[in-house]
Inverse folding.
């Protein structure tokens, strides 16, 4: 098998599909939903063409997709699926269940506005609304990152026995075509050892899963999940480093772009980081001491890393392409909470930018920077359009 | 006559079913017939309680407890995972209640039947949400009292057997706990017919929900058969019908008057139920 | 607990529920127990009916016969003559007709004769010697039981052949001589010394007493009762017992063409049937209505079918001699319902007078023991030898049973009494008391299994089959036996119909219907099963699903 890298012009969704093929999952329950559908279509095409083996399950709902994914995973095999928006919400019950089951499922979620009213636009509220379900969440900036992160996701999930959601946004990433370096099969096989968990649904072992527990057992179980989440911070970094050693591309769980000595940092996630990166370059060129903090790993929320990255920085501007009515931008809230009580913590400006998929241009971001620099921060998120 | 039932010792004593529970009896013959090369899926229900308190299990096979609506999908997931590992012999069985089958689990079940997943799905039908204290499900029969239909249910029971047969699955059967050899035989038959979804609906009297004495489960279940309320039959590939035990001419009054859930019935109500049962039987018997 | 819980895995199981003790939930536990069947309680010989019927069902006929002859050495005879109280109390009677127990008994008895099965040699021989006076059913039964216990037995009988009423009373068409001979021979072959043709009287008692350790008196009842309205006319008014004896001896008494039989019991039926077979026209006048006549209904049915005219609920008031015949002035009667039990008082129904012409009248209104020369030897009361509950007479070492000491006139009752008297004699002679007939634990205190205890689901309805009979037109022409025995197939069907009330057949229902798997087979238990107290929750499903009431409940207090 060739170790040569293949570079293909791919949509973000197909970049994910290629990574899935390389990871050799055994079971793939699927259900269509815009804008995720191309991920499953490419996979079923690979499968039909003999490029992938395993079981494709064409389920009748996302709920059943996740139900089947959990049991397949607990039977001791690698499982992948993908969804978006309403589909993710229909899974909500099973997302909790998967995490509680310690099922290392990998799922791609394509961020899309939630009804009602209906829309098809990039908006991270769907996945951010699942922040408490016990899934690891990665937010990807582009197709290449989604490709690489999908491979990392299997590695991390199977090491800590928690499910992973690999998230990118509708259209801006899912359907945008770009050149993507495909990792070779040999490299992936070296990177992802076969999944063979000691506890599984297996008549030879005879263990049952999920009988009713006492209060104490439940609490212990949750504590164990919390500890597994804690480990993700280190395991995630290691997975990233090791892939970087193989293919030369690494992302970290956070990316600090031109943050050295920065007096102003823009913090955001997903596709918006690309635009912000350009703005940072432009403003740095103009002498502004500005940097970008990209949060790639949102769950577990890397509090210590964030505090280290932002201590002593005077001002941080958070751009949220999501909206939680009543509290505002989710990243804004979380970041404030993460920095609470930190000596030398920055002032934090929370801007709702791009909710509903509205286009946020570089000039709009520059205006926001200017605005944040000139005023005291509001305790609440501020609509910026 | 005496029964000859070939049982493996898979279902354990010490489980938490009520004294005299017909559901435990049903599980016994299902699980002990399936044997050790099996994995079970159980949604929330009394079955889940009977499965055992963590860290103990009442079944000497792996049991996975899923969510109420997901039994068929969960079972299919296990089966596909096994197939992907080259294991085509382990039987995967979902054992769900009527709420988890007729109501909330119906979508997943119908879809699994349409995909013809290679699983056995067994519904232990006690005609209501008995684990939560006897509420109406779509399996609750006409006129029956439940806590959510205190004046009696106005609409008839959903005909799940007919619906599943209409999926043209390889095997559909009705069974009940008063005929344990028939139940065990049907499970064995389902095991033999591999390669598709096999469905068995087992009428399983709930002692508290139906208002019958601890020792009366098997007897009442037989009265359901002998009065024509619940004929025992099999359908293969949606078309080949076999009657195992049909009505023996017993009036439904003999069946309903033994159950407190029917104690509010007037003579007209009983007549109504009798007509309904007669009509159902007329429609069914032409298929044999 | 929290300490333990903190160590167990939170989602994957590590063990099984069978370490738990769900037995603490119950307040009563089911127990396997042998319970008495009503047929056993109703059986005059205390027969283990459910046991031998099941042996027939299992086609272990030899074992069935051995069980039968434990209590009754004459199954082929009793299988033809018993008044069948067992069938009257059979639980299956309430369902689809009693099991044909009597016919089954005949089947086994006849089979034993055909196969030539013999009684085993007594295990011990004792020196004590018992005299049995009377070779009828009570005497034969007693002699048999005593021989089995090892006693020496001498049987005195007045007739040339043994059998008493069986040989000289019941007509050939109901009880063939060869059957009686076969079964009595088997008893004799056990080593009974028979002195026949010798009628002992009370005067011989003293002498016998000196030679024997004990004496059993069972010479029956032979003195006919008479009715005052009939003239002492030996030519035209005959005694039923004497008539039947004459038929049995092959020289029937002279009869006119028109015979009227007076009486409503078995003897009356036998007399009428015999007269009919001798080519006579026969009528019966019975005091009781047909439904309460002492004769069993099927015996009445037989003679009526054969052409005997039955006039029930009537009596002869006066008799008028007219040339060669008698004119009987009769009247219909009703029985006074207010009389004490055992007393019959007919009330004439005015205006129902009628007359009958008879060439011969045969009285069959009962008979008493002939005790003329016994009254000064043993105490006599109400025309019978007085006995206590252990069949002891007033004189030490002398026992009595059968018609000589009892008002009951049933062959099977006499057989049963003979057996019980033998036990009593054995005890008198220093043997330990006989084992209880019912050997299983707790059985003695338990009430009979009732129909309500039977789970009829396990017994699909199946008709009781009667023995076939020769057609009335054919049978009335001869003394050949009228009732055909059951065929092999019929016998098996009948045996299968038996509920086996209270006697476990190891059907395993108790095992299968336990939702807690709390009942297991136990080869070391005489009751076949063990209830696992750790798990039994006390639901009672085993009890309910036991087809035959072979389980009970033990309350538990905590």
């Amino acid at each position: 098998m060739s170790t040569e890298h293949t570079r293909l012009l791919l949509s973000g969704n197909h970049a994910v599909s290629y990574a899935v093929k390389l990871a050799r999952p055994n079971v793939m329950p699927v259900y269509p939903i815009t804008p995720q559908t191309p991920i499953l279509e490419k996979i079923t095409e690979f499968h039909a063409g003999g490029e992938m083996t395993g079981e494709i399950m064409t389920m009748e709902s996302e709920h059943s997709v996740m139900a089947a994914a959990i049991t397949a995973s607990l039977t001791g095999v690698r499982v992948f699926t993908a969804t978006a928006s309403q589909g993710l919400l229909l899974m909500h019950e099973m997302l909790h269940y998967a995490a509680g089951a310690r099922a290392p499922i990998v799922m791609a979620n394509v961020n899309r506005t939630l009804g009602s009213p209906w829309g098809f636009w990039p908006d991270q509220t769907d996945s951010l609304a699942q922040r408490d379900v016990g899934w690891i969440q990665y937010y990807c900036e582009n197709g290449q990152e989604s490709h690489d992160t999908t491979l990392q996701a299997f590695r991390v999930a199977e090491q800590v026995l928690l499910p992973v959601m690999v998230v990118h946004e509708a259209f801006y990433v899912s359907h945008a075509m770009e050149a993507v370096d495909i990792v070779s099969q040999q490299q992936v096989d070296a990177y992802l050892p076969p999944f063979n968990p000691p506890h599984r649904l297996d008549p030879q072992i005879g263990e049952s899963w999920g009988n009713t527990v006492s209060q104490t057992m439940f609490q212990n179980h949750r504590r164990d999940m919390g500890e597994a989440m804690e480990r993700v911070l280190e395991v995630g970094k290691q997975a990233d480093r090791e892939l970087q050693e193989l293919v030369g591309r690494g992302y970290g769980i956070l990316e600090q772009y031109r943050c050295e000595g920065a007096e102003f940092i823009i913090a955001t996630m997903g596709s918006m980081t690309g635009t912000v990166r350009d703005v940072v370059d432009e403003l740095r060129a103009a002498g502004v001491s500005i940097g970008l903090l990209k949060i790639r790993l949102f769950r577990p929320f890397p509090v210590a890393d964030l505090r280290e990255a932002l201590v002593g920085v005077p001002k941080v501007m958070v751009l949220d392409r999501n909206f939680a009515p009543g509290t505002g931008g989710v990243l804004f809230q979380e970041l404030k909470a993460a920095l609470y009580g930190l000596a030398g913590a920055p002032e934090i400006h929370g801007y709702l930018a791009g909710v509903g998929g509205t286009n946020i241009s570089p000039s709009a971001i520059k205006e926001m920077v200017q605005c944040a620099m000139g005023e005291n921060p509001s305790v609440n998120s501020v609509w910026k359009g | 006559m005496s029964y000859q039932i070939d049982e493996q010792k898979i279902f354990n004593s010490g489980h938490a079913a009520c004294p005299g529970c017909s559901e435990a009896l049903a599980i016994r013959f299902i699980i002990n017939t399936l044997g050790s090369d099996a994995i079970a899926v159980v949604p929330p229900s009394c079955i889940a309680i009977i499965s055992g308190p963590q860290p103990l299990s009442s079944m000497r096979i792996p049991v996975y407890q899923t969510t109420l609506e997901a039994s068929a999908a969960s079972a299919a997931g296990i089966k596909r995972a096994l197939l992907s590992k080259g294991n085509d012999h382990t039987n995967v069985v979902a054992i769900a209640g009527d709420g988890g089958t007729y109501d909330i689990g119906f979508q997943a079940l119908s879809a699994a039947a349409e995909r013809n997943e290679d699983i056995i799905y067994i519904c232990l039908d006690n005609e209501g949400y008995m684990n939560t204290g006897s509420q109406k499900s779509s399996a609750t029969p006409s006129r029956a009292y439940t806590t959510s239909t205190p004046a009696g249910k106005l609409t008839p029971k959903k005909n799940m057997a007919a619906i599943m047969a209409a999926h043209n699955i390889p095997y559909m059967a009705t069974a009940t706990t008063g005929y344990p050899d028939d139940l065990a035989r049907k499970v064995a038959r389902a095991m033999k017919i591999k390669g598709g979804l096999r469905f068995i609906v087992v009428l399983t009297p709930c002692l508290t929900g139906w208002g019958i004495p601890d020792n009366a489960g098997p007897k009442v279940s037989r009265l359901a058969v002998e009065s024509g309320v619940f004929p025992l039959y099999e359908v293969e590939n949606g078309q080949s019908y076999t009657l195992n035990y049909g009505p023996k001419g017993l009036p439904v009054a003999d069946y309903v008057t033994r159950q407190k859930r029917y104690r509010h019935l007037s003579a007209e109500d009983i007549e109504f139920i009798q007509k309904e049962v007669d009509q159902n039987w007329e429609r069914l018997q032409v298929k044999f | 607990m929290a300490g333990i819980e903190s160590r167990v895995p939170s989602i994957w199981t590590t063990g099984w529920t069978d370490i738990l003790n769900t037995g603490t939930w119950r307040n009563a536990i089911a127990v396997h127990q042998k319970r008495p069947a009503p047929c056993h309680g109703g059986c005059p010989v205390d027969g283990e009916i459910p046991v031998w019927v099941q042996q027939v069902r299992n086609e272990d006929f030899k074992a069935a016969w051995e069980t039968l002859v434990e209590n009754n050495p004459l199954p082929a005879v009793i299988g033809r003559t018993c008044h069948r109280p067992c069938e009257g109390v059979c639980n299956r009677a309430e369902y689809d007709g009693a099991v044909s127990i009597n016919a089954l008994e005949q089947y086994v008895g006849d089979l034993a004769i055909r196969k030539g099965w013999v009684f085993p040699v007594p295990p011990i021989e004792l020196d004590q010697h018992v005299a049995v006076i009377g070779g009828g059913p009570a005497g034969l039964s007693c002699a048999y039981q005593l021989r089995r216990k090892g006693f020496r037995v001498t049987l005195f009988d007045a007739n040339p052949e043994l059998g008493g009423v069986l040989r000289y009373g019941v007509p050939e068409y109901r009880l063939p001589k060869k059957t009686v001979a076969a079964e009595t021979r088997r008893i004799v072959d056990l080593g009974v010394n028979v002195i026949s043709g010798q009628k002992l009287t009370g005067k011989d008692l003293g002498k016998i007493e000196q030679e024997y350790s004990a004496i059993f008196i069972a010479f029956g009842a032979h003195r006919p009762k008479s009715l005052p309205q009939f003239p002492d006319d030996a030519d035209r008014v005959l005694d039923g017992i004497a008539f039947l004896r004459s038929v049995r001896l092959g020289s029937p008494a002279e009869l006119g063409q028109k015979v009227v039989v007076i009486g409503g019991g078995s003897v009356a039926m036998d007399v009428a049937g015999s007269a009919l077979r001798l080519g006579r026209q026969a009528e019966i006048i019975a005091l009781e209505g047909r439904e309460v006549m002492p004769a069993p209904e099927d015996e009445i049915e037989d003679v009526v079918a054969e052409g005997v005219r039955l006039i029930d609920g009537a009596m002869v008031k006066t008799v008028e001699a007219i040339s060669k015949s008698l004119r009987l002035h009769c009247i219909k009667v009703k029985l006074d319902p207010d009389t004490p039990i055992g007393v019959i008082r007919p009330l004439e129904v005015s205006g129902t007078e009628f007359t009958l012409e008879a060439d011969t009248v045969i009285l069959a209104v009962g008979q008493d023991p002939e005790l003329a020369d016994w009254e000064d030897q043993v105490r006599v009361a109400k025309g019978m030898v007085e006995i206590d509950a252990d069949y002891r007479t007033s004189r030490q070492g002398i026992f009595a049973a059968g018609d000589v000491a009892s008002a009951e006139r049933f062959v099977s009752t006499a057989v049963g009494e003979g057996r019980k008297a033998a036990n009593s004699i054995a005890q008198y002679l220093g043997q330990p008391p006989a084992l209880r007939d019912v050997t299983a634990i707790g059985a003695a205190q338990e009430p009979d299994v009732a129909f309500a205890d039977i789970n009829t689901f396990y017994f699909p309805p199946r008709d009781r089959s009667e023995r076939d009979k020769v057609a009335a037109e054919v049978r009335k022409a001869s003394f050949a036996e009228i009732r055909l025995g059951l065929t092999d197939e019929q016998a098996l069907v009948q045996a299968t119909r038996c509920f086996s009330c209270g006697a476990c057949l190891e059907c395993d229902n108790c095992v299968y219907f336990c939702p807690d798997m709390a009942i297991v087979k136990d080869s070391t238990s005489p009751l076949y099963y063990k209830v696992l107290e750790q798990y039994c929750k006390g639901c009672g499903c085993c009890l309910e699903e036991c087809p035959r009431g072979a389980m009970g409940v033990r309350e538990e207090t905590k």
Remarks:
- Residues 256 and 262 of chain B are 6 Å apart (CA to CA).
- The radius of gyration of chain B is 18 Å.
- The domain at 22-285 of chain B is CATH 3.40.50.970 (Rossmann fold).
- The first strand of chain B starts at residue 38 and ends at 42.
